Amino acid sequence: MASPRQKRKVKKVMHEFKHGQLKGGRGRRGKVKSRRQAVAIAMSESGQSRRKRKSSVTRRKAKSRGGSAASRRKTTRASPRRATARRSKARGRKKSSR
Fold first, then answer.
1. How far is CA 24 from CA 11, 34, 40, 50, 65, in A?
2. Contact 32, 18 (CB under 8 A)
3. Distance (Å, rounded) from C-alpha 5 to C-alpha 60?
4. Is residue 84 packed enough to be buried (19+ CB in 10 Å), middle (13-18) or exposed (0-12)?
5. Going by C-beta distance under 8 Å and a sequence separation of 6 or more, which residues neighbour residue 86?
6. 23 near 29, Cβ under 8 Å?
7. Tell me, what's the pLDDT at 55?
8. Which residues, at least 6 apart from 35, have a Cβ–Cβ distance to it below 8 Å?
9. Predicted model pTM
10. CA 20 to 30 Å from 96, out of 23, 38, 61, 78?
11. Mean pLDDT of 81-86
12. pLDDT per residue over 6-37, tens digit each?
């Protein structure tokens, strides 16, 4: 549960975002354009955890699929063969061109 002070801070940061005054990365990176990024900044500045915040859409999708995403992840396991195939397609590894 957020304290009144934390709520005020979030409100202030979101107000800045709505008026195009919120800047990211110590102000060097320019204006924040993403609402999700603004929420992350607001919760970080107010000292709240971002892990607790889950949108109702995410919860609704998980419910309609039959359980939470975390429980589905635990039940399904990828085969070792698939894991190596995934590893070969990892970032930075490109096939050599001839």
1. 17, 11, 10, 17, 36
2. no
3. 30
4. exposed
5. 78
6. yes
7. 64
8. 17
9. 0.48
10. 78
11. 61
12. 999 999 999 999 999 998 887 677 899 999 99
Residue 71 has pLDDT above 70, yes or no: no
User: Residue 27 corresponds to which amino acid?
Assistant: G
Residue carrying structure tokens 């190596």? 84
Amino acid at position 16, single letter:
E
Amino acid identity for residue 35 in this structure:
R
The first and second tokens of residue 85, run together, are 């195939």
What is the DSSP secondary structure assignment for residue 50, as one 8-state letter?
Answer: S
B/e letters for 43-61, b = 16+ CB within 10 Å, e = fewer, are: beebebeeeeeeeeeeeee
